[in-house]
Specification:
Layout (H helix, E strand, L loop, with lengths): L9 H7 L14 E4 L3 E3 L5 E3 L8 E13 L19 E2 L8 E8 L9 H9 L8 H4 L7 E12 L7 H15 L5 E6 L6 E2 L6 E2 L9 E10 L5 E7 L16 H19 L7 E2 L15 E6 L2 E6 L1 E3 L4 E3 L1
Parallel strand pairs: 3-7, 6-7, 6-8, 8-12
Antiparallel strand pairs: 1-4, 2-4, 4-11, 5-13, 9-10, 11-12, 14-15, 16-17
Length: 320
């Protein structure tokens, strides 16, 4: 199977073809900003994908997102060092220097996605997370820690969850656990559920290849109440061809979930409000986009994971 919007070897081909400095939108992660009026909000984190009640509306604005495109990739691809045109530049935006990570599980327990909490604990206690030191200007240990798990229930009447519903879930969690740059929410969507960016043609829809453009994304949004500014990632079910990591040391589900979580988590830390902190303007890529094709079997805090590499300005290439 070949996807029209693949990023499998796009980054490497740019340099092998000597097209340095050329902007190729097919290689970028896709970034957008929306100023939207409101999102449905529920203290119980229970929502219907057909109903909106004005009495439970919380206004929000400045929804920013950066997409992780659909890709084809194989395991254990050797990283290829690339040169200075791929370096990330800093554009003055906020960074996440320390944070609690909260996993938000929709309609299923954590086991439906493997064990994301264990992975985050291991990554944040390993040398892997210190790849971001060069960007956030800190070398301290224990800057990034796991916070709490949060369960959300959605009454689905189709296989779709809307952007507004996801923001609703994030808002409910942030009201309880806090917003700002010291909290990151990772929203995990159950198997078989599609989602799209409203007002665009960008969708996670493995069952509809014609509309399928992304695997996951990270976002920020501003609420008009005490939740305030909130950072979150959205992780649809990753054990699908086009998003998955295959032939790794764990099940395809575990390695696919954890590698994508790595991608979105690192980009949230280094560019929490997309295209405002560290990114490459030529390619419209962030730290993980530039290395999405390169996987390694990484030994992280006593456990093996098949993870994508992350771009390092220090070595001007991808590294684990």
């Amino acid at each position: 199977m070949t996807f029209a919007r693949t990023t499998r070897s796009c980054f490497a081909s740019i340099f092998s073809a000597a097209l340095i400095g050329v902007v190729l939108s097919a290689c970028s992660g896709g970034t957008g900003v929306q100023n939207l009026p409101s999102a449905q909000q529920s203290q119980t984190a229970t929502t219907s994908n057909q109903q909106t009640t004005s009495a439970t509306t919380a206004a929000f604005s400045r929804f920013r997102y950066h997409l992780y495109p659909v890709h084809e990739r194989s395991s254990a691809v050797k990283a290829q060092t690339v040169n200075y045109p791929a370096d990330l530049q800093y554009y003055g935006g906020a960074m996440v220097t320390s944070a609690l990570s909260h996993d938000v599980y929709v309609n299923c327990s954590a086991s439906c996605w493997g064990n994301p909490q264990e992975f985050l604990d291991n990554m944040n206690n390993s040398s892997f997370i210190h790849i971001v030191d060069q960007y956030v200007h800190s070398t301290a240990n224990n800057r990034y820690r796991f916070g709490l798990n949060y369960s959300a229930t959605v009454r689905f009447t189709s296989n779709q969850i809307s952007q507004a519903q996801i923001i609703n879930i994030v808002h409910s969690a942030a009201l309880k656990l806090g917003g700002g740059y010291s909290n990151i929410y990772n929203v995990f969507l159950p198997q078989g559920i599609d989602t799209c960016i409203e007002g665009s043609t960008s969708c996670y829809s493995p069952d509809n290849e014609a509309d399928w453009t992304f695997c996951a994304y990270h976002s920020s949004v501003d609420f008009n109440d005490k939740a305030g500014h909130v950072l979150f990632t959205v992780e649809p079910y990753q054990d699908v061809f086009g998003c998955g990591v295959f032939n790794g040391p764990n099940s395809t589900l575990v390695d696919s979930t954890d590698s994508t979580l790595t991608h979105e988590y690192i980009e949230t830390v280094t560019d929490p409000d997309p295209n405002s902190a560290w990114f490459n303007q030529n390619f419209q890529d962030e730290a993980a986009d530039l290395c999405a094709s390169y996987d390694d079997d990484d030994f992280i805090y006593s456990h093996h994971y098949e993870l994508q590499e992350i771009y390092s300005n220090k070595i001007h290439g991808c590294t684990n």
